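Record 1 of the preview.
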Amino acid sequence: MTKQARGFVLLEALVALLIFSLGVLGMVGFQAASTKIATDSRFRTEAALLADELMAKMATSDLATVRSDYAQGGAKFKAWYKDRVVGGSYLPNATVTIDWSPPSYTSQTLVAVLTIEWTNPGVVDNKAKASEVKGSYTTTAMLF
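->
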């Protein structure tokens, strides 16, 4: 072997190791992003199911009492919130608000806007004053 050919295999091995390392780092990054997306999707699906359940309960209630029963301090709302949101869901720090202010189209209808918010675990937004980022799901329904 000539002096010029010595160490060439070692250089090839180092370049191959560098390329392999970059590939592995890229795969780790994709895995982290995939986990974040899957977690967000799970939380949104759960929020949608909870919202659908509450809207169905309100739709089957008497329209004359639905506002008082399902207001933030209403007995039926409190029971549902304690049983399903606090006791039965995996949404971290979930809050549920119902807005009755949109106008109804007739005197026999009532429009409700339901918003469910939760804290995304492990997410830090440097621009926000708080160190947590909230997820949100909103739906609107006409009750009659």
